[in-house]
Amino acid sequence: MRCPPFLAALGALLAVGCGGDAGEPPPTTSSQACSGPGYGEENGSQRVDVLRAMLVDQDGEPLADELVQVCGLNVCVNDMTEADGEVVVEARADIVLPAFKFGEGRVSARFAWLLPDEREIDLGVVPSVRLPPLDEAVPLTPGSRARSGALSLELSADATVKIDKLTFREPEEQGLRAVRVPLDSAPPVVAEGPELEIVIAATPVDTRFCPPALLTIDNELDWSPGTDVEVWLHGVDISQEWAPYGGWAKVSDAHVSDDGERIETTEPGLPVLGVLGFRRAP
Amino acid sequence: MGVPRLAALCALASACGTNKPELPPDLDRPEHCVALGYPDGPYGTEPGAVVRNACFSGWRAPHRVARTPETLEPIALSDYHDPEAAAVHLLVLNTAALWCAACRIEHESLPEHLEPLASRGLVFLSAVFQDERHEPAEFDDLALWVETFDTRFPIVLDPGYSFGLYASAETAPLNLVVDPQTMTILAKFVGDQPAVMWPFIEAELAKRSAP
User: For testing the chain B interface, which of A76, A78, A102, A168 should be mutated: the one with the most B CBs within 10 Å?
Assistant: First the structure.
């Protein structure tokens, strides 16, 4: 059963089965392109007492003073990393679909890594992804193109850009910043995804585009012109509108341009910003 | 002195309502505010118990005022104590925090629930208690929340998390459904539970409007 996003969110929160299978998106028409299909499904709770982790960036450097959370659909327990990147979260709660949520999308990218059903969890060193500095942020303005790193977004003149201003409060935080995620040192949640070949972390996380944005990335892997590509989104939002929480869902089709220079979305385009995965269509 | 703290002291100085008790200077915790006629304790935190009075600063109708620190008003739970059920038939006390995704989901859907129920005597009061990094909420946080959700019901700052008596911050949102005649807690919903809470509220309102 497919649900409107709001009902999907309720379903998720109330553990009511309501949504598509995780990772297998229902077909989207252009009229539906501004609201996600919803991925809520029934989940039981599990006990999480203590979680330990050490957060580092893609160069192995500690990520200090980062907000991390043991966060599920019903409970969210927070802590901050120490100077050496270490954190111990004393959750001691029964949590529905608990994930280790790290990165706010300010300093580092936001991920949600679903936790094993264990009361005490030691994740060891958790690689994350440091984002470009704020002074490299590019405004997201309707009717213009914004480029950061290998990723660019083209917004139609009538586009609505809905930024999470409760999280990204300063103007510079509301600009586009994107960075390639090295697969050999990516967070485990990337490897657990759908065999992605390119991953790019972009922020401000959860920015919504309506109509969806034309997304373009450099064809760094030299895929052949015309190659069909899938664009996937990592789900960090408990409303699970566009992707299952802690998982991945395909959000758009794309292809390699005729000149082989770029990979660009076709239909429906990019509806929401976050950690994006790309793979050649099977 | 920050604006929120100043506003809180102003709220205390104005005695949280129409009465003006002399408060000891060290009573700066909101739950210590006093209102004549408010139900006596023993107070409690679970259904069947009387909710303790608490005083805040906020806006009764945030969409009708310029949202500046100067327009913050003292608002107390006792303001909604209605022994005759003349105006308030049911009171819902709600918590919200900027970091709380479930709170955001809840507040996005509130208008569709509240608009048809306001005329039936439902008063919904929300308290914003923490910012996006789990720090105590300040004036800017309250203003941003109101702007984001176009809040049109009473909303207050609760930087000391007075409602922590009833549920831990991690389980936000909290919703206490309260009988305004006795200020007794009728139900307590921890976490966003719309499919359970709104039918309960509808049923309570129906009971209260029955001849």
Answer: A76
Q: Are residues A101 and A165 in the same domain?
A: no
Which of A 5-64 lie inside 8 A of B, CB atoms?
6, 9-10, 13-14, 16
Of the candidates B104, B108, B171, which has its C-beta nearest A75's C-beta?
B171
Q: Which residue has the tokens 């009708």?
A: B64
pLDDT tens sequence across B164-199:
999 999 899 999 999 999 999 999 999 888 999 999
More confident residue, A6 or A62: A62
Domain at A109, CATH number: 2.60.40.10
What one-letter code names the amino acid at B63?
H
Q: How large is the average pLDDT for residues A105-133? A: 96
Closest residue in B to A169 (Cα–Cα): B144
Chain B positions touching chain A (beta carbons under 8 Å):
98-102, 104-105, 108-109, 132-134, 144-145, 148, 170-172, 191-196
Longest alpha-carbon distance in chain B: 52
Q: Exposed, middle or buried by CB within 10 Å (0-12, 13-18, 19+), for A16?
A: middle
**Structural domain containing residue B194:** 3-209
Same domain assignment for residues A154 and A238: yes
Q: Which of A112, A127, A142 is the last residue of a domain?
A: A127
Q: Which of A126, A191, A168, A171 is nearest to A274 (CA)?
A: A168
Cβ A13–B145 below 8 Å, yes or no?
A: no
C-beta contacts of A22-25 below 8 A and 24+ residues apart: A22/A244, A22/A247, A22/A248, A22/A249, A23/A194, A23/A244, A23/A247, A23/A248, A23/A249, A23/A250, A24/A249, A25/A249, A25/A250, A25/A251
Q: CB neighbours of B132 closer than 8 A, spacing ≥ 6?
A: A104, A166, A167, A169, B98, B99
- Is the distance from CB of A47 to CB of A91 less than 8 angstroms? no
Mutate to test the interface with A, among B100, B112, B132 (most CBs of A within 10 A): B132
* Residue A95 forms contact with B (CB below 8 Å): no
The encoded tokens of residue B91 equal: 């009171």
Residues of chain B neighbouring A76 (CB-CB closer than 8 A): 99-102, 170, 172
Q: Which domain holds residue A58?
A: 45-127
H/E element, A22: none
Least confident stretch, A52-56, A80-84, A246-250, B41-45: B41-45
Place of tokens 């789990």: B134
How many structural domains is chain A composed of?
2
